[in-house]
Amino acid sequence: MAGIQTSTVQMDDGVHLHVKLMGNDEKRPKPLLIAVHAAPGLVTLAEPEAAFAFLSDNFRVLVFDGRGSGESDITGSYTHDRWIRDIDNLRRWAGAEKFVLAGHSYGGTICLDYAVRHGDRLSGLILRNTWTHGIQLMMTALAAVLTDPRLKVDVARQLRVWTGALRDDRDYEEAMPEILPIYSPPGDSSSQMLQFAAYHSATQNFAFNHNMPRFDVRHQLKDIKVPTLVIVGRHDLITPVVFSEEIARSIPDSSLAIFEHSGHNPAGDESQKFQKTVLEFLTTSVL
User: Domain AB hydrolase-1: where (predicted)?
Assistant: First the structure.
């Protein structure tokens, strides 16, 4: 593996983001991949780092804590417009005209918005366990956590999570352990989700009370022309297979990979197959 560079990068509005760039090699220029983490206000760059570090022999892999997450500034705005500008700032900071964009779960929605607006800047798109319609996701996720027999939840607290009405960081911290099993395939309750956690309830609240009610790219998917890999776990109850089937059916140059033994995170549940699938896509469609 080539060098790993950890940096604090200033955005155009003065906010500082915590960034890690893997595979940087001044002697051998490599294409850039930017990976966007899931769950703003909860998950950190450690999640996409774990998923995509294996590519650093062939790519420069850039991961970052989104604003309001991890070690980045807890400063808004947290809109998708702002996320998109941040991604473009990081693209320019890394010196790339075109790049591969990858997103997991909520990060995938930001990637879809980016691809709809700036597809000409992409050489590839990787979407993992994501969705196209915010309200549909909110209702699906809430229904899943309230009806799954494995879970014993505080109903009012889960309603606050999925509608963006958390009281404070402690409220968020108490809500997430209640639902961990729902992210894993049957018979496996060892979700890795919270090993990446850093609770910032204000970020989560904005994502689900402002961004998600406005997010809907269903009718714009046909306009995404970049080669796209769509990944989903067969047992994902938060973003079920039908969500990814819709994406793959609607984006012209796309392929769908269903991981039969995975839940919400195929990169962790079936890591070897995930790495093989991603590398084959990048080798045949991007490199």
Answer: 31-266
Instruction: Say how many CA atoms lie within 13 Å of 280 toward its Cβ.
Output: 10
Place of tokens 């796309």: 254
SS3 state at 241: helix
- Quote the strand ranges of 136-253, DSSP E: 228-233
- Residue 99 carries which DSSP code? E
- 8 A C-beta contact, residue 72 and residue 45: no
Query: Would you call 1 helix, strand, or coil by DSSP?
Result: coil
Question: For residue 156, how many C-alpha atoms fall within 13 Å in the half-sphere facing its CB?
Answer: 2
Give the Cα separation of 213 and 228 in Å (integer): 25
Token digits of residue 37: 């983490």
Domains of the chain with CATH codes? 3-133+210-285 (3.40.50.1820), 136-208 (no CATH)
pTM (whole model) above 0.85:
yes
For 54-111, what is each residue's pLDDT tens digit? 999 999 999 999 999 999 999 999 999 999 999 999 999 999 999 999 999 999 999 9
**Pairing state of beta strands 32-36 and 60-64?**
parallel
